[in-house]
Amino acid sequence: MDFLWRSVSEEEKEKIKKEAKEILDSFSKALAKVEKQKIGEAFVERDKKTRKENKPSKCDTGFRELFFKNAPQKEEDWIKAEKGAWR
Predict the structure, then answer these.
(1) Could you tell me how many helices (H) and strands (E) the chain has, helices first?
(2) 80 vs 73: CA distance, rounded Å
């Protein structure tokens, strides 16, 4: 893909900077015209959903078995996974 790369002269760099600044300034002015609406505070009640770190919660006894059953590759008590392949 080296056909996408080319050297940029100092004159071109300055032109790009100027155009970028004009775009940002234009966007900023347009954004300032947008009518603002007050939105209430976001509130999430978490008392029932959290646990104290010093008190472990009980786990579903079938979870481990189901988890290993769904794992594509496993070996004894370990799940084999390729690091970074899911990214």
Answers:
(1) 2, 2
(2) 5
